[in-house]
Here is the input.
Amino acid sequence: MQEIADRAGINKGLLHYYFRSKEALFKMIFREAFTRFSKILHTVLSEDRPLLEKIDRIVDEYTDLLCQNPALPGFIVNELHTNADQFVAEIMQLPERPDPSRLILQLHIEGQAGRIRAVDPFQTMLSILSLCAFPFIARPMLQRMVHIDQETYLELMRQRTHAVKDFIRTALLPGGQPSEL
Amino acid sequence: MQEIADRAGINKGLLHYYFRSKEALFKMIFREAFTRFSKILHTVLSEDRPLLEKIDRIVDEYTDLLCQNPALPGFIVNELHTNADQFVAEIMQLPERPDPSRLILQLHIEGQAGRIRAVDPFQTMLSILSLCAFPFIARPMLQRMVHIDQETYLELMRQRTHAVKDFIRTALLPGGQPSEL
DNA sequence: GTCTATAGGTAGATAGAC
DNA sequence: GTCTATCTACCTATAGAC
Here is the structure.
């Protein structure tokens, strides 16, 4: 609280005057960031698009979001490991929370129709999420190992979207060749 | 420290007598777990095997390790976001630390030879790691969303290894069909 | 609204008896 | 080695002057 007050150019007392408690302050900030995040994911997941196009959108938007909020994944993961129950309960209450069921359904349908390989929709969904999120969660480590600064790392992540989209497409398409959708 | 002492059936004083400080205790436990983890990864990464066989081994061993230490990823990520510099420095000092350079080289060579698609080796390496690690980092959330207990979730992760290996293979092979290596 | 000063409580660490 | 009691530091939160 002292450090926050210092950076804001005020004092601890005033911080409590505005936010009542440290926890209330944290929740307000965190919820605000997470809600923005959640809303955009909700939108792309709900869009009415062909499967592969939708996956491309997810990868692009997800990466964009995390590039703009590189510290967010750390907070989310921390909350997840200290307050998992409450955190999940709060997500469930959001009116515009990410709902993967539509994407899972599309994966199922396209698989049945033979337009993509017959993969397990849940595992595939999880794989897409993994490919997008993990590099940001592990950023503090990877960035230091490759000896680059944050901005360079984020640029590497933007380039990565092409590799990821290509990777997923190739893994899903029956022919195995990336197509132009 | 109080809770640890209680669970150990001793008192705080004795805990300090043995470990000197809370930080020293944490580091001892954490380093022990991480070193085991690091050692096994080092081994599979160093093995002299064909590329796809090696990737299968990585996926299997990584999953196995995390199934046996489901709490470890949480601690690692937390350390990563609070002590990144020191954490990375300590990893670098380990005599048997995971070294991805050999795998990256193999990806490059096989790509050049046309035996796999010409992918970016670093991004591919990162993708493999993502597919293995993320589901364990996000476990507290996913487990609650699917309403299953930890043991069921870990079983789901063991099944997942097949989906992941298949996913990677298909994404890498020029023909796009998973082969029997 | 904004500040200073301080109360209240918690937790890591130590002293000292046994 | 093991315990109890206590010290010390820190940090959240509040009281009260302006």
Q: What stands out?
A: Residues 176-181 of chain A have pLDDT under 50 and may be disordered. Residues 10-11, 13-14, 17-18 of chain A lie near DNA strand C (CB under 10 Å from a C1'). Chain A has ten helices and no strands.
